[in-house]
Write a structure and sequence with these properties.
alpha+beta; four-stranded mixed beta sheet; 20 helices; 13 strands; 11% strand
């Protein structure tokens, strides 16, 4: 029967879909659409001898329609440099030689076993997920996996539990772009396990296809397919004729180790003067008639400090910030990877922004975290910001949905008398001008010395990055002018020069847009 002929082409259709897409999910979806369309259109095929050219012509048409559908709906967002999540890996150095041997053995397995092994151990899919992925019965997957394991066990008699140790990265982006529910973030297309390993091995040193194949333990043709996609997605670049290197920063523990060992020492020549200036700013800023959200002077100390350093960065920071170039999709963004274990603290003062464009007054909600033990808090969106500003101005908001959501998320709290209370401090434009004048009086005189010390330390920090990532490194180093405030804040808490933040408190603020 002709339907049986279609079933016989499942593997070939899936392979075709992989070449036309850039993620496992898209490949599965496209191959399914091709096969469904073939079943539906099969009765119209009059000449059975023309089946194969008919099928591939149909596949091309479905693929074109699929690509158009993927780009129909878009929504604009802006993304700050993402907060990094620790990557935990249970390593066993004594078994590294065994892991390398296992990878080499997998590369020599027949294709029928190798693909199952890669999906199971490199991509971490369950047998059920592999069954769905490859469109074959789960029992077949289990049998093939068992057979592959047996082949390896015959040659590795000391193996107690079959396991591989592929590198795992968390890949994200920063910049801006047209991404939303219907348009995936760019990292989706390079997040499979083999691509992560290629990116890792090509980060510090350029590698050839053959070298990558040996390091990852997979056949060269698998690597070639991934490299082709990674180049198209601008995640790797050529380094000479036959080598490739990762074209974005991958954070590892070496950056945190450098920060722990050197950052505080670098600022010690003026640490006491900086703390004295920050205390003077806090004492005087408390006299500004801004909305303090019931926060204690001790908690506000950290908000004053980061606002002061943001103010001074605008005037004193001489570090370059290269423009983010547009990518293949026409948007300006960059990848960033992470494989930190969490054992070492890299300096990273995370700043999250969201603003409104409402007629009731334009404000941003800004959250700072990553220092003095202050936790992350998600930012409000525009309607919640509007509702909070309404509460501050009149005690009431007509937007019941936004108000209810703000209460649910903790931006608003209900007091015993039933009135609503905004939990974030707020500065008007005029009040922020008063604050900047206070900063000018107490901190600006120290900024030349601070700049010199910070720039010297940052120059050493930049040397940790691969040379070909100079622009990426400059963007990361630019934020350090402000982020080094976290070193000052942590030192103040540790030495008792400042009280620790109240447990559960946040460092966030509503600022009127100028």
């Amino acid at each position: 029967m002709m339907s049986d002929r279609i079933a016989a082409y499942v593997d070939k259709v899936y392979a075709y879909a992989v070449k036309k897409t850039f993620s496992d999910e898209e490949a599965a979806e496209l191959s399914q659409e091709i096969l469904y369309t073939a079943v539906r259109e099969l009765p119209r095929l009059r000449d059975e001898s023309r089946f194969e050219p008919w099928l591939w012509s149909l596949a091309q048409n479905v693929a074109k329609s699929f690509r158009r559908k993927q780009g129909k709906q878009r929504a604009m967002f802006s993304y700050d440099i993402p907060e990094d999540l620790a990557y935990e890996e249970d390593t066993d150095s004594e078994n590294e030689e065994l892991y390398a041997l296992l990878r080499r053995k997998i590369a020599m397995l027949s294709a029928i076993y190798r693909e199952i092994i890669l999906l199971y151990y490199y991509d971490g899919l369950s047998t059920k997920q592999i069954s769905e992925h490859l469109k074959i019965p789960e029992g077949t997957v289990t049998w093939r996996l068992s057979e592959a394991r047996n082949k390896l066990k015959k040659e590795c008699s000391t193996m107690e539990d079959f396991t591989l140790k592929p590198v795992k990265l968390r890949i994200d982006i920063y910049g801006s772009g047209n991404f939303g529910c219907d348009v995936p973030f760019p990292d989706v297309y390079i997040n499979d396990a083999l691509s992560q390993n290629i990116l890792y091995f090509c980060y510090e040193e350029a590698q050839s296809i053959e070298e990558i194949s040996k390091l990852c333990g997979v056949p060269a043709y698998y690597v070639e397919d991934r490299i082709e996609n990674l180049m198209k997605r601008e995640a790797v670049v050529r380094a000479g004729k036959d080598k490739y290197r990762t074209d974005f920063i991958i954070w590892s523990d070496k950056y945190g180790i450098y920060c722990e060992q050197t950052a505080e020492k670098a600022l010690m020549p003026i640490m006491d003067k900086l703390l004295l200036a920050l205390k003077s700013i806090a004492a005087e800023a408390g006299g500004i008639d801004f909305y303090q959200a019931g926060k204690s002077a001790a908690d506000l100390f950290f908000l004053y400090g980061i606002l002061a350093f943001e103010t001074e960065r605008k005037k004193f920071c001489r570090l370059p910030y290269p423009e983010i170039k547009k990518k293949y999709d026409g948007n300006a963004w960059c990848y960033v990877g992470n494989m930190e274990t969490g054992a070492h603290k890299r300096i990273k003062l995370t700043t999250l922004h969201c603003g409104n464009e409402g007629v009731r007054g334009r404000y941003t909600h800004t959250v700072y975290c990553g220092f003095a033990g202050l936790p992350r808090r998600e930012t409000m969106f525009n309607k919640q910001i509007d509702a909070c500003i309404d509460i501050l101005r009149t005690g009431h908001s007509d937007d019941r949905d936004a108000t209810a959501l703000a209460v649910q998320q903790g931006y608003l709290q209900r007091k015993e008398d039933g009135s609503l209370f905004v939990t974030a401090p707020a500065f008007t434009d005029e009040q922020m001008t008063q604050f900047e004048q206070i900063v000018e009086r107490h901190l600006s005189a120290l900024m030349d010395d601070y700049s010199a010390l910070a720039e010297k330390w940052i120059a050493g920090y930049k040397k940790l990055f691969p040379k070909h990532l100079s622009d990426d490194a400059d963007r990361m180093c630019y934020s350090m002018f402000k982020d080094l405030y976290s070193v000052i804040a942590d030192y103040a808490v540790r030495t008792g020069a400042a009280a620790a933040p109240t447990p559960g408190s946040y460092c966030d603020v509503l600022l009127q847009i100028r």
